[in-house]
Write a structure and sequence with these properties.
Number of helices: 11
Distance between the termini: 32 Å
Number of strands: 0
Strand content: under 5%
Number of domains: 2
Low-confidence stretches: none
Oligomer: single chain
Order of helices and strands: HHHHHHHHHHH
Structural class: mainly alpha
Length: 298
């Protein structure tokens, strides 16, 4: 886990701020962007996922208020848009529990590959639509798949939900707004389940910084939605879905490439009778261990 410094704090806040502008403005990419980036710069995966879930809860709550204020959707209790949210959330809550269980019991590359391929397909369908007739049970199915994705990795909810509703004939602005609303109970329940099943491997400042950035970003995102032309919004949502999916698949292939390269180099060096070290730091560590061991006779 990265140590607390003012620079680390500011960096995390800014990253969450920018990611939430995109997420609440276009209906996706918060967890999809932040999860791999935060893990890549040194944060533990078991700290990142629950922290993203709780911060997106706060960002989604803020974004919902501003989506309603900018009239991207009508969230009064008896409105059809509120019913869309319920159709996503109610079945999705059951999928969250299963998603967390799967997340702690399968290899990371399987999880990333599944979400990446699914999101790419949904993105292409958003740009080159294969429209289906709107049915409430179909909305519920979208909610189950997207909630499962969210609990699985912290990402993959928005791309599936936003594109899935657009393909069902929903206005893109309504789709983005209802996705933001649906994220609130889904992310909150995912965070609670993570906490009771795995604990929270993090320090207070990390999720707090993410929450601050997400809240600030969620004030701006809905304004972006209100100002973008609906036709462009649909295309942008599809392109972002494809990009996020391709990136996830790339990280999987990159991991395999590093593993296979390491195996190949190890085999070659072994045939030459030379020890193989993946990096200079591994070599230094090994040599220091030998030296220190020689001093103390072990």
């Amino acid at each position: 886990m990265i140590e607390y410094t003012i620079y680390a704090l500011i960096t995390v806040v800014v990253m969450a701020f920018l990611a939430e502008i995109i997420d609440s403005g276009l209906g996706m990419m918060y967890g999809t962007i932040l999860s791999p980036v935060l893990i890549a710069i040194g944060f533990s995966a078991f700290a990142v996922v629950p922290s993203i879930l709780i911060s997106q809860t706060m960002g989604g709550l803020t974004g919902t208020i501003f989506h309603h204020r900018y009239r991207n959707a009508d969230f009064r209790l008896k409105s059809p848009h509120f019913k869309v949210v319920l159709a996503i959330v109610l079945p999705g809550l059951a999928a969250v529990l299963f998603g967390v269980w799967v997340a702690v019991n399968i290899p990371g590359w399987v999880m990333k590959s599944y979400i990446g391929i699914l999101v790419i397909v949904m993105g292409f369908l958003c740009i080159f639509p294969l429209m289906y007739t709107f049915k409430w049970w179909k909305m519920s199915l979208v909610g189950i798949v997207s909630a499962f994705n969210k609990a699985l990795s912290g990402g993959g909810f928005g791309p599936v939900t936003s594109t899935g509703k657009i393909l069902g004939g929903l206005d893109p602005k309504v789709s983005v707004a209802t996705t933001t609303y649906a994220e609130v109970p889904i992310c909150l329940s995912g965070f609670i389940i993570w906490y009771f099943m795995e604990g929270i491997y993090t320090v207070w400042w990390f999720p707090a910084a993410l929450c601050l950035g997400a809240i600030l970003g969620a004030i701006i995102g809905p304004y972006v939605t209100a100002k973008i032309d609906t036709r462009w919004l649909k295309t942008i949502v599809g392109l972002l879905a494809i990009i996020s999916g391709l990136y996830l698949c790339y990280t999987v292939l990159q991991g395999f490439d590093e593993t296979f390269s390491s195996m190949a180099y190890s085999f070659i060096f072994k045939q030459l009778g030379v020890n193989y070290y993946p990096s200079i730091w591994d070599w230094i560590s090994k040599e220091l261990t030998k030296i220190v061991g020689g001093w103390f006779g072990f």
